[in-house]
C-alpha cells in the first residue's frame, strides 16, 4: 500500500521543479511501464495493481525494483492519467549530456517547442525514423513532463536528448564545416514556409533538422545557422501543418533520400 | 447579452444528439469564427465580445448574422473551450450528400476514426494536401464535435464529408473498375503495417486512401476492397505512428508522385 509520504512524493513529480530537485519522473500506464522496465532507465519504485504485478512480476523483480500494490483509485490519485488501471513507475532522470550528430546521421534540434503533446509525438516520430538524438533549446517543454512521456508511447526509452544552448552548438557546426572537406560537412536543415521543396531537394546523410516554435517558428538567432531552408509543398488551403506532422513528413522525405536501401 | 434560452441552446450543441436534432453546431475562437463567416456555411448566431465585434463587424454584418455581445465569462460558459476571449458561432450543418472520388482525384475514406483530435487533424492535413472529399464510416467520430472543428483550424470550411456505408461505396468502385479501361480505374489504397513501401510504389492519379481505427486498423470487410496495401517504412523502434501522422506522410507520398509538377 502507498504511504502518505509516497503519495506526496509521487504527486510532487507532476511539477518540473520537484522532478529536477529529486532527479526523478513518472511513467504511467501498462505499456509505458513495461517499456521503461526493459530499458536502461533506473526505476526507483513501481506502483501497480495486483493484476499488473502478477502479470509482470519477472520484469519487475529482475531489477529488484521496490513495488507497492495499490488500487486503481490510488494509482489515479498519485498519477496524472485520467484512467490508469495498471501501474506507474518512479524513474531516475538521466544526466544532461551533450549530443552531436555524427557523420551519416540525422539529429533533431527543437527550438522552443512548447506543447508537451507535440513534444511527445515528436519523440515517437524520431523513434520511428531512427533519429536517436534530440537537442532541445532550454525553452522547449520538459521531456520528463508526464504528458510528454505518455504521448511518446514508450519512445522516450529509445531516443536520447539534451537541453542547452542550441545556438552555441550550431555556431560550432558552422566553424567545423569551414575546416572540413565537403563530404564531411554537416547540413543544417530548418523548417520554414518559404524554403526549398522537400520533394525535389537532395539531402545529405549528415545533418540536423531544426523545428521551430508552434506559433513563431525558428528564432532568428537559430535561423542564421540554417544552411538549407526546407518546405513541405502545399496543394490546398490550410495555412500550416502542426509541428509534429511537419516533423514526420520532413523526416520521411530526408530518410527516403539518405537511407541505404 | 445572451438570454438563458440562448445559453441553454448553445450548451445543448456540445452533444451530438442535440446537434442532429437542431441541425446546428458550434464554431469557437477568433480564427475559426472568421473563417466560417467567409465560407459557404450558414451562420445562425454569432456571440462575440465587444472587441471582436468591433473588429469584425463588416464580416458579420455582410451576412446579416444576428449577434449577441457577451463577456469572456459568458463565452466560456456557453462554449467548450477553456479560454475564448473572442467569439463563437452557431452554424447550420450541411446536408449529408454522397461523395465519390472523380478521375484524377484522391479522396480519403476514414474507417472508424474515433478520436476527435485525430479527426480534426486529418481535416487540416486533407486541406493542406488538396484532398477535398472525406468519406466517413458511420462509426467515425462526428465531424461537428466542437473538438474536431477546433482541431481542424478552419479547414472544416474547405473540405467536404459524407457519413455512410463505406463498404457499399467500395463494392461499387470494385464493380465499376471491372467495366472500366485501365486508365480509368480507381485505386483503393489502404494503410497497413505489411503493405508496399510508399517510397517506391507508383501511385495512380485516381483513388481512395483508406485509414483505419486507432487501435484495430481497417476492418476486414473494408480491407477486402483495398487494391494496394501501403506502408510507411520504419527505420527505428516505435511500434506505430499516430493515424493523423500516418495520413500526412501517406498523402505526401501520393502527392509527390501524382501531382502535375
Write the CATH fold name of the largest domain in chain A.
Alpha/beta knot
Structural class of chain A: alpha/beta
Poorly predicted runs of chain A are none
Question: If helices are DSSP runs of H or I spanning 4 or more residues, what is the number of helices of chain A?
Answer: 10
Assign the CATH architecture of the largest domain in chain A.
3-Layer(aba) Sandwich
Which oligomeric state applies?
A: homodimer
- For the biggest β-sheet of chain A, the strand order reads 7-6-5-9-8-10
CATH class of the largest domain in chain A: Alpha Beta
Provide mean pLDDT of chain A, rounded.
Answer: 96
Q: What number of domains of chain A? A: 2
Radius of gyration of chain A: 20 Å
Describe this structure in words.
2 copies of one chain form a homodimer. Chain A has 261 residues and is of the alpha/beta class. The first copy, chain A, has a 6-stranded parallel sheet, sandwiched between helices. In chain A, strands 1-4-2-3 form a 4-stranded mixed sheet. In chain A, strand 5, helix 6 and strand 6 form a beta-alpha-beta unit. The longest helix of chain A is centred in the last third of the chain and has 16 residues. The model of chain A has no long low-confidence stretch (mean pLDDT 96).
In short:
Chain A is α/β, with parallel strands linked by helices. Chain A contains ten helices and ten strands. The N and C termini of chain A lie far apart (53 Å).
Amino acid at each position: 500500500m502507498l504511504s502518505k509520504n509516497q503519495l506526496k512524493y509521487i504527486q510532487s513529480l507532476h511539477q518540473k521543479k520537484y522532478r529536477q530537485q529529486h532527479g526523478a519522473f513518472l511513467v504511467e500506464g501498462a505499456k509505458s511501464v513495461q517499456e521503461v522496465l526493459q530499458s536502461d532507465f533506473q526505476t526507483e519504485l513501481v506502483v501497480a495493481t495486483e493484476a499488473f504485478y502478477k502479470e509482470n512480476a519477472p520484469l519487475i523483480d529482475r531489477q529488484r525494483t521496490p513495488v507497492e500494490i495499490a488500487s486503481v483509485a490510488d494509482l489515479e490519485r498519485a498519477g496524472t492519467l485520467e484512467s490508469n488501471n495498471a501501474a506507474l513507475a518512479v524513474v531516475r532522470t538521466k544526466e544532461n549530456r551533450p549530443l552531436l550528430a555524427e557523420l551519416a546521421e540525422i539529429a533533431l534540434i527543437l527550438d522552443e517547442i512548447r506543447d508537451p503533446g507535440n513534444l511527445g509525438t515528436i519523440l515517437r516520430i524520431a523513434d520511428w525514423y531512427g533519429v536517436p538524438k534530440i537537442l532541445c533549446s532550454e525553452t522547449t517543454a520538459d521531456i520528463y513532463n508526464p504528458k510528454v512521456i505518455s504521448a511518446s508511447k514508450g519512445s522516450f526509452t529509445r531516443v536520447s536528448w539534451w537541453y542547452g544552448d542550441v545556438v552555441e552548438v550550431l555556431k560550432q557546426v558552422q566553424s567545423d564545416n569551414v575546416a572540413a572537406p565537403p563530404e564531411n560537412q554537416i547540413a543544417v536543415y530548418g523548417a520554414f514556409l518559404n524554403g526549398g521543396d522537400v520533394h525535389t531537394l537532395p539531402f545529405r546523410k549528415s545533418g540536423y533538422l531544426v523545428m521551430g516554435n508552434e506559433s513563431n517558428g525558428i528564432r532568428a538567432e537559430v535561423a542564421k545557422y540554417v544552411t538549407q531552408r526546407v518546405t513541405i509543398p502545399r496543394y490546398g488551403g490550410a495555412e500550416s501543418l502542426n509541428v509534429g506532422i511537419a516533423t514526420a513528413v520532413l523526416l520521411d522525405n530526408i530518410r527516403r533520400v539518405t537511407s541505404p536501401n
